[in-house]
Design brief:
Length: 393
C-alpha cells in the first residue's frame, strides 16, 4: 500500500485536484444554499402550518336572483377533464337546519349554523381527530380563523364577553342541534380541531356530511355548491382563461402568496440546477485526474497485480483520495451555508416572523447524499479502470 501511495503522490496533479475542489465546493454551496433558503423563506409565504397542503383553486358560480349557482354533472365532468387539473372534489352543503350553543364563563349564546365538507384527501388533519362515529355523537369542526377575530373584536365587545384565543376555542364544547322535523332535535357535541385562513366556511368530515344528508334530508338535491381543484401551477393562464370563459368565480390560497411560492420554487430550481452543473463538471475533473494518475502508473500498477496485489487493494488509495476530498468539500460547504444562514436569518428574523425557525436537517441530509453519490461514482470508475489494467497482464 505504501508503494501505491508513493506512486500516487509522485504523479498527482495538485492543480487538477484544486480545480475539482474549487468547482465542486462552489457547486455544493450553491445547491445547499438554495435548499436552505427555500426552507427558511417558505414560512413567509405559506405560514407555519398549512391545513390545505396542496395548491388548489375553489371554483363557484356567481349568485343570481333567479339562477342556479350549483354545478350539474356535465359541468363537473368538464372541469375534471381539464389538463391543469390534478385532482378534484365537491363541496357538499348541509341540507338541514343546524343550531349551535356555546357556553363559557357562565354565559353563552345560540346561533344558526351551516356545514360544508370537502374530500378528506385535501385536508392535512390527523385522521384520529378528523373522524365521525355515529355512536359517539361527536362532530369535529374546522373554523375559519376570521370567525375568532369577528368574535373578539365585535361580538364580545358588544355583549361584554371575554376575548378568547385559538387554544381556548379548541377546549370549548359546542352543543349542536340538528332539526329532524317539527320541534324534535338531535343533539351532538362538536369539537373544534383546527382553524384555517384558506376557505371561509365551516368544515366537517365528508363521512358525517354524507351520512347526515341521507339521514336528515333524504330527498334533498345534493348538487355540488362549489368545486375544489388541485392544480400543479396556480399561476397557469389556462385556469384564468377557463374561469373567464365560463363566467365562474375562484377563491383559494391568496393569489399573491401562491404566485410568490411558485416563483420561489422556480428560483430555487434554477439555483440548484446551476450548482448541479458546477458539481457535475467537477466530477468530470476529478475522474479525469484519477484516470491520468492511473494511466501514468499503469505499468507499475500492472506489475503490482502480478506480484499478488488484488485490484481492490490497488484501487483503495485512489478511492480514499476521492472520499477525503468529497467529505471535506461537503463539510466545509455546510459550515459556509450555516454561517451565511446565520447572517441573513438574523436580519430577516427581526422583520418577519417565522424566518430561520426551520432546521438545517434537510440541507445536511442533502449534502451527505450528494457526497455519497459522488464517492460511489468515483469508486466505480476507479475500480473499473484498475480491473481493466489487471485483465491486460
Amino acid at each position: 500500500m505504501r508503494l501505491i501511495r508513493k506512486l500516487l503522490r509522485k504523479h498527482m496533479s495538485f492543480v487538477q485536484l484544486a480545480g475539482f475542489f474549487l468547482a465542486n465546493f462552489i457547486g455544493i454551496i450553491i445547491i445547499l444554499s438554495g435548499l436552505q433558503i427555500y426552507q427558511d423563506i417558505k414560512p413567509l409565504l405559506v405560514g407555519d402550518k398549512e391545513l390545505f397542503s396542496k395548491d388548489y383553486v375553489v371554483i363557484s358560480k356567481p349568485v343570481t336572483l333567479l339562477g342556479d349557482s350549483t354545478f350539474d354533472e356535465e359541468e363537473v365532468a368538464e372541469v375534471a377533464e381539464q389538463e391543469w387539473v390534478v385532482s378534484w372534489g365537491k363541496f357538499i352543503s348541509s341540507q338541514y337546519r343546524v343550531d349551535a350553543t356555546i357556553r363559557f364563563g357562565g354565559r353563552g349564546f345560540t346561533t344558526h349554523m351551516f356545514f360544508e365538507s370537502v374530500p378528506d384527501n385535501f385536508l392535512d388533519v390527523e385522521p384520529e381527530l378528523w373522524r365521525f362515529d355515529e355512536q359517539e355523537r361527536r362532530i369535529p369542526i374546522i373554523l375559519p380563523r376570521n370567525y375568532i377575530n369577528l368574535y373578539n373584536f365585535g361580538f364580545s365587545t358588544a355583549r361584554g364577553l371575554p376575548q378568547i384565543t385559538e387554544s381556548m376555542m379548541k377546549s370549548i364544547k359546542i352543543e349542536v342541534r340538528i332539526n329532524r322535523g317539527g320541534l324534535n332535535n338531535d343533539v351532538y357535541e362538536a369539537e373544534i380541531v383546527d382553524f384555517t385562513d384558506d376557505i371561509n366556511t365551516i368544515l366537517v368530515p365528508e363521512a358525517f356530511m354524507v351520512w347526515a344528508n341521507e339521514h336528515y334530508a333524504p330527498n334533498a338535491d345534493e348538487k355540488a355548491s362549489r368545486l375544489i381543484v388541485e392544480v400543479a401551477n396556480p399561476t397557469d393562464k389556462r385556469i384564468t382563461d377557463f374561469v373567464k370563459e365560463h363566467k365562474y368565480q375562484t377563491e383559494g390560497k391568496e393569489e399573491q402568496a401562491s404566485k410568490a411560492m411558485f416563483l420561489l420554487k422556480i428560483c430555487v430550481g434554477v439555483i440548484v440546477a446551476i450548482g448541479a452543473i458546477f458539481s457535475i463538471l467537477s466530477i468530470f475533473i476529478l475522474t479525469l485526474s484519477i484516470y491520468l494518475l492511473v494511466e501514468k502508473n499503469s505499468e507499475k500498477l500492472q506489475n503490482l497485480t502480478l506480484i499478488g496485489y488484488t485490484p481492490a487493494k490497488v484501487a483503495r488509495p485512489y478511492t480514499s483520495l476521492a472520499i477525503v476530498l468529497n467529505v471535506a468539500i461537503v463539510a466545509l460547504a455546510l459550515w459556509v451555508v450555516g454561517y451565511l444562514r446565520g447572517i441573513y436569518t438574523e436580519k430577516l428574523g427581526s422583520m418577519f416572523e417565522g424566518v430561520g425557525e426551520s432546521s438545517m436537517m434537510i440541507t445536511i441530509l442533502a449534502g451527505a447524499s450528494i457526497a455519497l453519490v459522488i464517492i460511489l461514482f468515483n469508486a466505480f470508475v476507479i475500480r473499473r479502470k484498475i480491473n481493466g489494467l489487471a485483465r491486460k497482464r
